[in-house]
Amino acid sequence: MLWVALGLALGEKRAAFRNLIAEFEDVDAIVGASTLELCRVKGVTRELAAAIRKAPGSPEFEKERDTIERLGLSIITLKSPDYPENLRHIPDPPALLYVWGELEARDSFAIAIVGTRTCTHYGKQTAQSLGMQLASMGLCVVSGLARGIDSHAHRGALMGKGRTIAVLGTGLDNVYPAEHASLAEEIAKSGAVISEFPSGVAPLPRNFPIRNRIISGLALGTVVVEAPPQSGALITARLALEQGREVFAVPGNITAQTSRGPNQLIRQGAKSVLSAKDIIEEIAPEIKGMMREETIKQAAEAKLRLDPNERKIYETLTQEPLHIDEITLATALPLPKIGMGLFNLEIKGLAKELPGKLFVRTL
Q1: So what CATH class is 105-288?
Q2: Residues 293-331: pLDDT tens digits?
Q3: What is the domain partition of the chain in residue ranges?
Q4: Which of 13, 27, 83, 111 is deepest in the core (most CB within 10 A)?
Q5: How far apart are CA 227 and CA 57, in angstroms?
Q6: Which class in CATH covers the domain with range 291-361?
């Protein structure tokens, strides 16, 4: 919890926070250091040093600790072994993260989906479809819980029965926008809602560009679905490039204001995305690491145990959702046998059902 006290004392002095971490062995050494020792660290003034030394006993820290316990949050720091590996390697990693839910090692295989709050029906459908496809393939979907594209990307991931991470520009006690409180709760059950901001922080405009570096930093690549020229989503895309990550864009109507951002990104070299397959192809070397030898072995053994109908259905399935009517048409099997075959494939871990009678191959 001393990390939290230190974070409160340093406030927006992110560079000073990282410099202190680099200079001292641990947080106990930082808060126990003398004013002179602290002031030797770049970015630390005498005023800041005094605040650091007082931090463990401050009323603000006591209040924050109570809030963390009340909300059931966890704290992950740059020194933690479970700090997100992708995020650790960006130029400006947050020194600590407040986490509602749970971050997992497999979240390293993540794609960010971002876009405008004032999106079109096309944008909503596209964000939701991409979120669902990526999640069903085992990738984590990262976004910012905002209205529009962000919320539909999260909902798509939940529909795909996968993991999703929401990064807030407020404290976790102040979910913004308020109408997404139930969505945030759902995300926390099967993923995580995170922020570098302490409790009580309001949705100030300056906070959102700051949090955008975390959205792109958590992911292997960022997809811009819809964004006008001044959209914050384009800031996230720029940050992704600066972090050495891939940038993708969904092409749109050339006369639509919401498509000007992604269309411009494509002209500048971003990969055009029509489906999740386009993303997977680009980051295939990283994704291959998800398949451990034991998993491959188990999949091979499961395939050997398929009866003729199950095998026919399995070979029809792909990593993109297929409706049960399409499967029936492709296999020419009676519907009862299709239903039983799909059920058996799910039991064997080779297929997954998505909402709307859609099915995908999982291995």
Answers
A1: alpha beta
A2: 434 445 555 556 788 899 899 989 987 889 999 999 999
A3: 2-101, 105-288, 291-361
A4: 111
A5: 46
A6: mainly alpha
